[in-house]
Amino acid sequence: MKEIQAPNDITKVALSNSPTIFLAGGITDCIDWQTQVITMLRPYDVIVFNPRRANFPIHNPNAAREQIEWEFKAIANADIFSMWFEGGQSDQPICMYEYGRNLALNPNRIVVGVNPNYKRAKDVYIQTELACKGIKISNSLEEHVKMILKKLNQK
Question: Which domains are present in the chain?
Answer without folding.
Answer: 2-154 (3.40.50.450)
